[in-house]
Amino acid sequence: MSEETLPGVETGTPSxxxxxxxxxxxxxxxxxxxxxxxxxxxxVVGMGYExxxxxxxxxxxxxxxxxxxxxxxxxxxxxxxxxxxxxxxAEPGVPGGTGESAATDATDASTATNVGHYRPVDLDFYRxxxxxxxEILHDCADVVREVSIDEAYLxxxxxxxxxxxxxxxxxxxxxxxRYVKQRIAREVGxxxxxxxxxxxxxxxxxxxxxxxxxxVVVEPGDVRGFLRPLPVAAIHGVGPVTVDRLSEMGVDTAxxxxxxxxxxxxxxFGSRGVELHERARGTDDREVTPTGRPKSLSRESAFAEATxxxxxxxxxxxxxxxxxxxRARDRDATYRxxxxxxxxxxxEINTRERSLSGPxxxxxxxxxxxxxxxxxxxxxxxxxxxxxxxxxxFASGEQARLDGWDSADAAASRGSESRAESASVRRxxxxxxxxxxxxxxxxxxxxxxxxxxx
Length: 454
What we know:
12 strands; Alpha-Beta Plaits; MutS, DNA mismatch repair protein, domain I; Dna Ligase, domain 1; alpha+beta; 3 domains
């Protein structure tokens, strides 16, 4: 981290630049990828809404659905009462419902204008979209901490700066954050909110400040003033139980918490009370620590419109293969698996992979395998192509001989998405449900019994 003091920033203020990237209503956004007609419509992703099912919960609700009182972690029966289910055969925007649970009155359902489009949780699909997003994040920052499937911190101190552009009243950091947002939107097609600040807690608060699709920049000298009027619950690590206890102490805003006596906070909350006091004052010295090296490297490219032209597809895929192989070599990474992605309209994702006998570094092999896998889609119109190398190894001396590499197709391997919450949240005494539901989405862990937690 640079020790340089920027103009207008008091001595000792860190010049670190942290981005907190938070995907907006991620599961619903993924559903809109494969069903573009759902854009702008109320979308509810969850379980238990089908006829004959008696219980279930909402995983996430789009902002349009939230306007009707549908929230994450809500019983699905309550969601259906507030927002009847649209008929499965109805076009988005056309009212209707199926089954008794879709509406309390069939006549009302047939004439209602407010209905929701309910979709089941599709873990594999969401992970595939999240993987594409995370590839961009790792390309945009040298240090990335993946917190969950739809949330990450980036330290971009070495990529940009707090200086202002000569022809605009913006910081370079804001421009870089906008670039990250635009890449996610353009290359993956899902919206993200980004917070930019000199520390992790302020960046997280900033990303929540102007959802959805927001971009909020808090410069080093402005952190405390930005936090001061916010409700105390906005401070990272403050859950419902702590909110109630602070309220009893007359602490309702971040400013109140910053002005509180640290000794009183320590007496009530222990060392965590002092930590929360510092965060309310805009101080957070935690470094963004990576959660590990990437498990794969990939590149994707979308066509202006879906094409079945074999030459165009081969040319695009060859360029992607060359790019991916170069990225792996730049990172001193070898790979055991080579794969492609072919997205068929509207958003049907097809992946094909081939495993090798051991880790290799061979750009020509990446291209030849990718083109061979593409042959299956010779006569298919595709809207997007991608190339990926996975099962990466960063250790030296592990490259396998190219003779005898296994040409059998490998089964797609998707590791469980790890989920890490801040240690301070866990010490709060509250469950981590608050952190998930206030962001409008339940963790995939709640729907995947095999998912691991950190």
